[in-house]
Amino acid sequence: MVLVLAVLLAADAKAVDPTEFFETKVRPVLADKCFACHSSSRMGGLDLTNRPAALKGGNSGPAIVPGKPTDSILVQAVAQTHARLKMPPSGKLPDEEVQAITAWVASGAIWPEGTKAKVPPPSEYVISAKQREFWSFQPIRKPAAKSIDELWLKMLTAKGLKPSPKADKRTLIRRAYFDLIGLPPKPEEVEAFVNDKSPDAWPKLIDKLLASPHYGERWGRYWLDVARYSDDQLASQFEIPHPSAFRYRDWVIKAFNDDMPYDTFVKAQFAGDQIKGREKELAAGTGFFALSPEQQDDRVDAATRGFLGLTVACATCHDHKFDPIPTKDYYSLLGVFLSTQKDEFPLAQLEVVKAYKDHEQLLKDKKKELADLQDNQAHELAKIFAQDTAKYVLAARGEKVDGLDQTVLERWTKYLSQPNHEHPYLKEPPDKLQTTVIEVANEKDRIDAENKVRLGLNPQRKDLSSANLLSLPRDKHYLWRDLFSEKRTSVFYFKDRDLDRFLSAPFAARVNALRAEVKRLEDTMPQHYPFLQTISDVAEPKDIKIRIRGSADNLGDVAPRRFLQILSKGTAPKFEHGSGRLELAEDMVAKDNPLTSRVMANRIWQWHFGKGIVATASNFGQLGERPTNPELLDYLASRFSEQGWSIKTMHREIMTSTAYMLSDAPSKANETIDADNKFLWRANRRRLDIEALRDSMLAVTSELDLAIGGQARRLNEEPNKRRTVYGFVSRRDLDPTLLLFDFANPNATNERRIDTSTPLQRLFFLNSAFVERRAEEFACRLEKIQSPEARIKQAYKILLQREPTKEELRLGLEYVKSETGAWRKYAQVLLASNEFVYVN
Amino acid sequence: MNRRDLLKTMGSGFAMTGFAQLAAQAARSESPLLPKAPHFAPKAKQVIYLFLNGGPSQVDTFDPKPMLTKYHGKQAPSGNLKTERKTGTLLKSPFEFKRYGQSGLEISDLFSHLGAHADDLCIIRSMHTERPNHEPSLTMLNCGHVLVGHPSMGAWLTYGLGTENQNLPGFVVLCPGYPVIGPQLWSSAYLPGIFQGTYVRNTSDDPEELIRDVRNRSQEAESQRKQVELLGKLNRLQLAHEGDDPQLEASVAAYEMAYRMQSEAMDAFDLRKESQKVRESYGKGDFARGCLLARRLVERGVRMVQVYYGNDQPWDNHDDIMKHKTLAATADQPMAALLQDLKDRDLLKSTVVIIGGEFGRTPAVEVSGLVDVQNGRDHNNHGFSMVVAGGGFKGGLTYGSTDDFGFRAIEKPVHPHDLHATVLNQLGLDHTKLTYRYSGRDFRLTDVAGSIVRDILV
């Protein structure tokens, strides 16, 4: 029946265009129902993706015989008339599909050439004039205006907004302290500032804070968010700390404290080790890339979002859907990073480094020599004991047998008494068991010898993974494991000191000599020399090919290492020196690149105000937000590069503006126009981030350890009283308090932190040992003051930089009278209060 | 605000989800975890995800392959698919498959307890993912992406729907230690931190051992009540002084909530409150404890509970597939007991229960140098099984299939994106509309893919 119809259809197949018949009726069926097994995986040896392969067929012979459907195994299989092959295994195809295949074979199995599914290579990408017109690619145009305030006020006026009044001095000093150093001012500092009536009291305060070494701890940490800084790797199962990550962190902090020009700061992070004459000072900067996450390649992403505000990694699989970034650009940059490698930069004399490495190697060699010698002896010994297996088993079962080793007998007894064994051999009679045991040991030796041949010398993990090795059958393996392996519990194997009594004199002497040597080497092991985690260029840097649709199996054109097309005039020149990372960095900070200065000026603004002029600080592309005040952004960007890329100069200019000094007073009229305060008609109220919060709590109790720099320590390791920036930042298991308070994700570059307010955060204030301890300390600090009233006043001055109101004082006095141990609890309430936790 | 008030505000948020509602809630200074209306009428309200981490073998559990027995010890006719490590000849399953229930679902002896619920189980035999490595597959199954840095399904669900009980976290993750990669698997990534999974070690019956800072150890409840009252008064004074501020108001409300949370959480995590009979039905061990906690939490309105079978990757049996037997011995009974318990409390209808790991295992034996005995299986991402029950999924059904040997999903393949889309659908969420704008782009759990598998839904 099927065949009759098929013949009829065959006429059809010829009548219609055979290509069309194949493409519409046959190929979809093959693709849908057959390719899963009969393409790359070639089940049954059969590939059905092209005609020659189908003609060649599989293990059962040719799949198709053109013109002869009844002789074609393919037709027999799908019609399920074949004795053995009934395809597809998931169930018979609908009749019309069987008929179509039959008809197609009958009509000669026309299979148009070149229709094998291929992804066409992308054509050369052309950036349109319209794309070039996008705001962020435009050159920076410095406005005629003379100040931030001029441009800020111009925008407010245009929007019909009136600025809130200036904040009072108490508010300002609190704001400036948290903003620049992340710590609250002391009561006497507040006093001095409030009483300083000179016109330059404010700029003097700013200068003082900028000169503080704690400034770099605050602002360096902001950068570390962008740099996705961490003290460990995102390891799967074990903790793998970065031994020297802290040196990058400390370098960033110092760079901010020293007001390192931002262009240098950028270049150092790509190629500090290649900047002639300043290698020692700047190599640490390459930690930005040396500490990249291991599990995924995010270097292009971090570099382009971090420095340029462009999402170049969106072009990994296809040209960027919105911005003028061809996929080739992505591979041009990736080529730069793939031409680098992680390296270390010793901070010690060459001889010191060499001495350390030699010593380390020698120790390793001696340890191995000792272990090998012992293992060899233990192995031989085990085989000797195996000769007496039957005796031991009988003895273990209570029979009296002489001449056995007491320890081996004890081990046998223990082993036999275990309820479960992974193998069945213990049921055998002792003689038979002994034969099996000896056989298994010999077989294992043969297998090990063969496997050694198969693996070659010094196999690496990847060799092991791809090796095709032999092993004992499962049950025999467990017998061998339980009797002969190095496992502590194994019956015949003696380790280290336990082995000594069996060794003959010459071997014992050799073992002891090696032991002494190992001990000597361990005792004299020098301290590990300090070093930086850096990157360096590989021996042969090279361009890579585009991976079409991100697939490493589908390669396209070579993407020469060079800068992004949209930021280049004409075709970007190829990088010529090593990996090209220094050239890349130079292009980043080139005068005519409009993005780098805009992006950093915007970040500085954002870190001061909580919100950037461009709200998406790491995305200045189509999908990013537009600047709320483009003129102001360009003013800041041009001031930034003009003034030698000095970040501290930017702070001074921003903080002395009226825009910065506003109060957070509400205004109904303004709120109807700009409820989100996009145009900055008032100050933004901000929750302290976890660094400022934790540091403040330690500061107000006078417990804070203000030491600068050094190895990271876990924050939950009591008593860790160092600043939070020095706490251990883990990619794998971030400290729970950091996590609770919206710390940056160290696995990817961060444009800003999100502020959340959650009940679990409240539980931290109410119940955590950390807060309780601080409350206790704070209460102690107040104890010296006699009158409860004065105590409360002092508490307010230290925590909130002001005197309590009458009502607050009354509530406080009432509370401390009503409770036992009240001061500690009262202190905890104040530490948890909104006013302490927010800054306005 | 009491629970009734909360539910009232839920009404006012009707037809808004995701970001718009979040913004509206922020404006009303409400918690972002308040229940939100879904996109359409949901079939289910909650999710329990039982994660058998390490990659359980499909051909030894839910996908019987007679051909594997027949060709045991022979090379697969097609050669082996590309996997992580070297594999050799085909390895038959040492476990026996039986038919269970009226539907006659075939399940191996390893999961005979689960078999008793066959008519409630939907076995998807055609799962597949991109990579044969644990990390990318773990993040794919949990967060819909092969890279870390994307929000987990639980984070998306609480973001989209909030949670029913404001005194408990909306998304709870239970594991005695950590699975591979750890917290990235329940991360909120770029979603606000409030949506991240609350991780609890399920190693004790005593809640104080389990939850950090849940209860104050140094003072009585009465005394703390007074503290919270004083704090409320001081915060309100400041609020009056500063004028309207939604942020500060939210913070005031959060304290009240936190205070209530203490007693509710203590109660929810206290397994000593369960009857002996119930305890026994779940059996012993951390996973049993996790399953029982999952029920207690779901019962109290927690949106999603995820229970990891154990630390690291217990089901990763490269060397000896017989180890599955030991593992199943402490997995089968608790999962079956959980299903029964949910049924008894009429919760299974409204709870999607997902069972599975990050991928399956090869039908061929692993022969690489990384194993010391060759009786196990390598990773297999090309085809594996997952089981779903409750929440409007069809019971007594197998869906899709792998080839004759169980290497590759060939019929009706289901990608984790499809599974995610389907689960979201049961909770009343359109996976293409549940988006979050981050750094200029709208992100989804299902990236740019995923289709709902309608055939497995009631």
Distinctive features:
heterodimer; A: 840 residues; mainly alpha; two-stranded antiparallel sheet; 39 helices; 52% helix; 3% strand; B: 458 residues; alpha/beta; 8-stranded mixed β-sheet; 3-stranded antiparallel β-sheet; 14 helices; 33% helix; disordered N terminus
Describe this structure in words.
The complex is a heterodimer of chains A (840) and B (458). Chain A is mainly alpha-helical and 840 residues long. Chain A has a two-stranded antiparallel sheet with strand order 1-2. In chain A, strands 3-4 form a two-stranded antiparallel sheet. Chain B is of the alpha/beta class and 458 residues long. Helix content of chain B is 33%, strand content 16%. In chain B, α8 (221-242) packs antiparallel against α9 and α11 (286-299) packs parallel to α13. Chain B has helices at residues 3-12, 18-27, 66-70, 112-115, 134-143, 153-161, 207-210, 221-242, 246-268, 276-282, 286-299, 323-329, 332-344, 416-426; strands at residues 46-51, 87-90, 97-100, 105-108, 121-127, 171-174, 198-200, 304-308, 351-356, 360-366, 377-380, 384-389, 397-399, 401-402, 409-411, 436-438, 441-443.
Fold blueprint:
The complex is a heterodimer of chains A (840) and B (458).
Chain A: H1 2-15, H2 18-38, H3 51-56, H4 73-79, H5 95-106, H6 129-132, H7 148-159, H8 169-180, H9 187-195, H10 201-211, H11 213-226, H12 245-257, H13 262-271, H14 279-282, H15 287-290, H16 299-308, H17 327-338, E1 340-346, H18 350-386, H19 389-396, H20 406-417, H21 430-455, H22 461-466, H23 474-484, H24 496-500, H25 505-523, E2 531-537, E3 544-547, E4 555-559, H26 581-588, H27 594-609, H28 630-642, H29 647-655, H30 658-661, H31 668-673, E5 686-687, H32 690-700, H33 736-740, H34 759-767, H35 769-783, H36 788-800, H37 806-818, H38 822-832, H39 834-837, E6 838-839
Antiparallel strand pairs in A: 1-2, 3-4, 5-6
Chain B: H1 3-12, H2 18-27, E1 46-51, H3 66-70, E2 87-90, E3 97-100, E4 105-108, H4 112-115, E5 121-127, H5 134-143, H6 153-161, E6 171-174, E7 198-200, H7 207-210, H8 221-242, H9 246-268, H10 276-282, H11 286-299, E8 304-308, H12 323-329, H13 332-344, E9 351-356, E10 360-366, E11 377-380, E12 384-389, E13 397-399, E14 401-402, E15 409-411, H14 416-426, E16 436-438, E17 441-443
Parallel strand pairs in B: 1-8, 1-9, 5-13, 6-7, 6-8
Antiparallel strand pairs in B: 2-10, 3-4, 5-12, 9-12, 10-11, 14-15, 16-17
